Structures are given as C-alpha cells and as structure tokens.
TrEMBL record:
It comes from Huiozyma naganishii (strain ATCC MYA-139 / BCRC 22969 / CBS 8797 / KCTC 17520 / NBRC 10181 / NCYC 3082 / Yp74L-3) (Yeast). The lineage of its organism: Eukaryota, Fungi, Dikarya, Ascomycota, Saccharomycotina. Residues 331-345 have a biased composition (Basic residues). This is Pre-mRNA-splicing factor SLT11. Residues 316-351 are annotated as: Disordered. PANTHER family: PRE-MRNA-SPLICING FACTOR RBM22 (PTHR14089).
Length: 351
C-alpha cells in the first residue's frame, strides 16, 4: 500500500506505531471526494487517535500533511506560507481554492500531482533552498534596520526639530467624525493610539471577530498597516457590507464624543484604539517615510489624545454607558445583598 503523507509532528517519534487503513473511509476536506483514511496513535498508551482528513492527491498538490494540513517544509498554514513566499518573490503567490463542490472535484482531478501556489517552492528542494537563502538575507537586513531604529528611538526626539510632518498630517482624517452617516460609502479607516505591545495579527483577529469574516481585508497586503513607531495604522475592508457592519458594531459598543467630534473605539486586548473614517484611503508612506517622521507623528498623536478633545470615554459618556453603569451598580448591590444573607445549615442530617 502507498504510505500516507504525514509530517513528523503528527507522526511522533515512537518506533511502535500501528496504522489502520480504511478504504473510502471519509470525504476529503478539500476536494470532497472519498479517500482512503489512515488513523493511528502517536503512542500506544495515548488515548488520542490521529486521522488523515485530506486525500493524498490534495496533500501532494499543496505539499501539506494529510492530518494537520500544515506545510511539510515549514509546518505553517497554507495562507501563511503563500504570504511569506509572496513577500520574498515580490509578486502574489496564492493557492486558489474552488468554492463549490463540483469545482473542487474538477480542480483536484484536473491538476493531478501538479503543485499549487507556494507548494511549487516548498515542494522543490532547489527552490526551497533558494527561498530560504533569500529569507535569511531579508531577516538579517531587517534585524539591522530594527537595531538602527531602536538606537534612534533611544536617542529620543531631541533631534527632530528640523523634521516636518505637515505633508503627513494634512492627509490624516483628524477632522472627521465617526458616525453612520459620515462613514457611509467609506471602506478605509484610520487607527491611532495603538499600543506598541499590540501585534498586527491581534488587530486583524479582533476585526475579523467583529465583522464575522476572517477574510475581511482586500487582496493586497496593504489592506492592514500598523506602524508601531508612529502608534497608528490603517485598515481597508474588501466590501462596503463588511465596512458598514464594522461601523454599526463599534457604534453599538459606544463611541467617544468630545468637541462635537465622535471617535470610534476598537477594543484590542485591554487597550482602546481610536477609529476615524478615511475617505481618501492610505498607503505605506501615509504614516511617515523614515524613523524621524514616525516618531514625530507619534508625538503629535499622543498630544492630541492627551488633550481634552480626545479623553478616554467613560461609562456614562457612551451611548450604552449609562446602562452599563446601572447594570454594574445593580450587580454590586446584588453581591452585597448575597453577602448579608446567612446560609442555613442542616445539622445532624443522617444519610
């Protein structure tokens, strides 16, 4: 029999593994065609049974493990692998999946053992070695740039007097207001007040939870930009429907209104990030072209946030704040009442 395509992480290192084969045991998670299922235990004493969930054909096409569906070379998801290779190659590399069942089967049978997307790279030893060399060079260069940027940050903003951010500030939507009417037809938004400890993926995940769609961004990688040095960034939704859902949800959670202007509040972890509609959109250089502009923009935004017009919202100031405050007070009263009640005990109870 042909051996299943299973990575070393799923297979484990036990020398005594018993694999059970079930012909046509399930439908492939990718192409939906019936396939031969293999299941086993990493260790004979383990109670966890590991099964193959994708057929051998689909696994070969994508160069992934039949069990965990991670890339065999890098042990990461298909999307993450394709994104990394796209950054290195300088053009989009994507494993395109069919949407309906008939097309899924057609693609699987038509392509045979041909590699799809990033599998052409990670599935070929020579191309993989070349990409790994390019990746190492890129990481080394970025590490050096990060070290230089850190040194500049340590020196502070004492030498920023000659740096001008007028060309950046005039394009920022600082005078906009966050409301249903003002956000109509807008798909891009400005985020500021981003704590440096918040990773970009966390913002991505938080927005995905709000709109209920993991693929909320447009195809280009510039649909989500977070510049931690400037403590700001931008997001762009792939559709107006998702954008409207995002606005509606943030408004329902409560916004900040000061000086006649309203700012949306995006809660990420324990931090609050301010949100404004960005009609003209943004690009990478919208947050500064160098470290000096980044720092000066950060200082300007922090000054804005600390001013009276950008004070953090309180429970009573938000649309749902009074309800939250009353609810909290009621819960507190209930807790106090419960403490005052003495529990009754039954003594000498025979069982």
């Amino acid at each position: 029999m042909s051996a299943p395509i299973i990575c070393e992480l799923c297979l484990g290192d036990s020398p005594d593994i018993r694999v059970t084969k079930i012909p046509n045991g399930a439908d492939c998670k990718i192409c939906t065609l019936p396939f031969t299922v293999f299941h086993f235990k990493k260790d004979p004493r383990s109670s966890t049974i590991i099964r193959t969930i994708a057929c051998e054909r689909c696994a070969k096409q994508r160069n992934v493990c039949q069990c965990c569906m991670l890339d065999l070379a890098w042990h990461i998801s298909i999307d993450e692998r394709d994104q990394i290779i796209s950054l290195i190659k300088g053009h989009e590399v994507k494993t395109r999946e069919a949407q309906n069942e008939m097309m899924k089967r057609f693609v699987a049978l038509k392509n045979g053992n041909a590699k799809l997307g990033g599998a052409e790279v990670t599935g070929d030893r020579d191309q993989l070695a070349q990409v790994m060399a390019q990746l190492e060079e890129t990481l080394t260069r970025e590490s050096e740039q990060k070290e230089d940027a850190t040194n500049n940050l340590k020196r502070g903003s004492s030498n920023l007097g000659s740096t001008s951010i007028t060309h950046i500030w005039k394009d920022l939507p600082m005078s906009e207001t966050f409301s249903s009417e003002n956000c109509a037809g807008v798909q891009s938004f400005f985020l500021f007040g981003i704590d440096t400890s918040i990773p970009e993926w966390q913002i991505d995940s938080t927005i995905a939870d709000i709109v209920g769609d993991e693929n909320w961004k447009q195809t280009p990688s510039t649909s989500l930009i977070v510049n931690h040095k400037a403590t700001c960034g931008g997001i762009k939704f792939k559709s107006q429907l998702l954008s409207d859902k995002f606005v509606k949800e943030l408004i329902s959670r409560g916004c900040l209104t000061r000086g006649g202007k309203t700012k949306g509040i995006l809660e990420v972890l324990r931090f609050r990030v301010f949100v404004l509609p960005w009609r003209q959109g943004f690009k990478i250089t919208s947050f500064g072209r160098n470290i000096k502009e980044n720092i000066k923009l950060r200082n300007a935004l922090q000054a804005k946030i600390s001013s009276n017009s950008f004070n953090l919202v309180t429970e009573g100031d938000s649309p749902g704040g009074k309800k939250l405050a009353k609810s909290a007070a009621a819960n507190k009263h209930k807790r106090v009442g419960k403490k005052n009640k003495k529990s009754k005990r039954v003594s000498n109870l025979e069982l």
